Fold:
Amino acid sequence: MKSAFVLLGLLAVSQGLLRIPLKRGKSARQLLEARGLFEEYRRKFPYNPAAKFLPRNEQSVVPMAFDPDVTYYGVIGVGTPPQLFKVLFDTGSSDLWVPSISCTSTACSHHSKFNSSASSTFQAGTKPFYISYNSGFASGSTGYDTIKISDLYVEHQIFGVTETEDIFLMFVPWDGVLGLAFPGMALEGGPPIFDNMWNQGKIPQNMFSMYLSSSVEGSMFILGGTDPSYYTGSIKWIPLYHATNYWNILIQSITINGNTVACSASCEATVDSGTSVIIGSGQDINNINGWLGASTNQNGEGLVTCSSTNLLPDIVFNINGYSFALPPSAYVMKSASGCTTGFAPGPWILGEVFMRQFYTAFDISNNMVGFAQAV
Structure:
C-alpha cells in the first residue's frame, strides 16, 4: 500500500511538470567541417570555455565562448502573439537574448529575428545589451515581454535583443540563449526567467532538470521537478559548493581502474549545459588522456583511434560519496576528422559529455544538483 501511495505521489508531481522537447542539431563543427572552414574559425575564435565564468562587475559585458560542439536547443515564444526562437538552455549564464529584426549582421540573416513592433506586450528597456567573445562581440538593447515556454507564460521578462552579432553565430544551431544560472550573474537589470517563473507561481517546485539524448530527437528540458521516465535508480543529490552564482559542486577524485588520475585533492566544477565537453586543469586532463593512450593535437584535443573505443576504460567521478562511471561510449566524440576524448584543458566544467550519461536536476530551493543514470 505504501508503494502505491509513493507511485501516486510521483505521478501527481510528474503531471504538474512542463516538458520542453530539445533537439540535437548539427554542431558548428559539423557545418564548418563540411565547408572546409573549421580550422580557420578555430584559429579566429579560439575555444575558451572559461570566458563566461570569469569574475566581472556591473560594467562588464555578458561573456560567451565559441563552443563548436554544443548542439541542443528548444523552442520558446517571445511576445504576443509569440514569435518562435530556438534557444540554448544554458546553466552557465543568466541572461535571455535573441536576435533583433534590426540586426544586419550576416549571422542574424541565418536565424529568426524578433520584431518588437509586432508584439502587443513589448516594452522597451533602458539598458544596452552587450555580449563579448574572444574575438568581437554582439550588441543590442533590452526590452520586456511575455515569454512562452511550453504551456507556460512568463510576464514582463527582461531580455536582450541583439543588433550586431559575430559571424561565428551563423553556424550555431540555435538563435539565442536562455540562461539558467543564478540572479547574481544577470546583467540585463532584472531577474532571470526561471526566477520569474517561480515568483509568478508558474511551476510546482523551484527546480528544473535535463535529459540529453545521443539522438537527434528525444532530449527534454523539464520545468518544476524531475521525471523518473528519463532515469533509472534514484537521484543522487549533491550540495552546491561555496556560495557562487553558478551550479558548482565538489569532485572528490576521478579514477580509472581504481587509480586516481585527476582531482587528487578534490576540485570544484561547474555543471554547465552550455559547454559541450568536460573541462579540467591542464595537468589532470593530460593525465587522463595519457591513461587513455590519447595523443594531443595543437588544439589540446586528445586523439584516439575510433576502432579501439570499446577497449577504453570507464572514468569514474567520485562526488559527495557517490561514484558516477563514464564509459568510453559517453566520452569519446566522433567527427568527420576522427575521434577525440571529450576532455579539454581549463577550469573544471561538467558539460554535455557528462550530462548525456546522467540525467541532471537543478534544485534552486535547496541549492543542490542531482545526478541519476540516464535511460
Observations:
- The mean pLDDT is 90.
